[in-house]
Amino acid sequence: MSGIKGPAIFLAQFVSDKPPYNNLESISSWAQSLGYKGIQIPAWEKRLIDIDQAASSKSYCDEIRNMCGDLVITELASHLFGQLVAVHPAYDEVFDAFTEAALRNNPKERQKWAVDKMKAVIRASANLGLKVVPTFSGALLWHLMYPWPPRPEGIVEEGFRALASFWEPILNMASDYGVELAYEIHPGEDLHDGETFERFLEATHNHKSVKILYDPSHFILQYLDYVEFIHIYGEFIKAFHVKDAELRLSGKSGVYGGYQNWKERSGRFRSLGDGDIDFKKVFSSLTEVGFSSWAVLEWECFLKNSDQGAREGAQFIASHLIETLEGSFDDFAAMPTDKKRNKRILGLE
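RESULT FIELD:
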């Protein structure tokens, strides 16, 4: 078994116009001062990276690496681009905020732009020597998540065929570049649990670039076994967001949340260690199935501020990393192979 690397931090929730969070060099220095060894860069964040330039210029990618100092770039995250690869019309206006102003109110052009951006992230990742791109799947079916009114026969299968058709050109390009797409299993996306991941995998004809970003916070809010998931889908897990959450079921609100804001919801994201997730089991299970990439903090909390969450997160992740065992703990008592002795012990002589 290989050990998980870390701690690393996803920068999306920390970037702002205020120093030291306003450019890659200064935010990297800040992250390193807290004890982080890696950073996951949001590919849509122009204050940190010009993704089109990174896609076309290896020398620019060298500059990006130099700006990070001693930190490793773990991945280029592409969630906001992936979200726009597949958008149901009901969500057009709210997701228009993720694209450029000139493309708003033009879903077809926005979708083409999103595909082009995903391809740029793949090329940029290859230029940086990265093998995995975390992303969202987008959604055509989320409004049909609850089976009332009854769904028309065959509509789910048709939805996943359409979703696969949007993604296959991107997946094929990723394969050509030796890159895998790690879809975050996330409510609001058509890939939001194991069943939907399997549907997508089947619709893409088991495409070799279809992988998983594992984030247990989204499982606990669905009342889904986040540890068993690791053992079922471990071979597909290629990226890991370390994020905590809690679920406080009540007589007034359950997993659907009653349209409440985060503070009032039964399911709420928390800073690491403040929620319900058993991260000892998570890190142990991921190590057991052979996950050896980065443990990346994704800070989201309704209560604690981001600076405290980041400070505590580095220590929390570091304390959960496992230095894997070489051999077995009882090797001292091992007996060499002896066929005759084995037969005697079994009573066969």
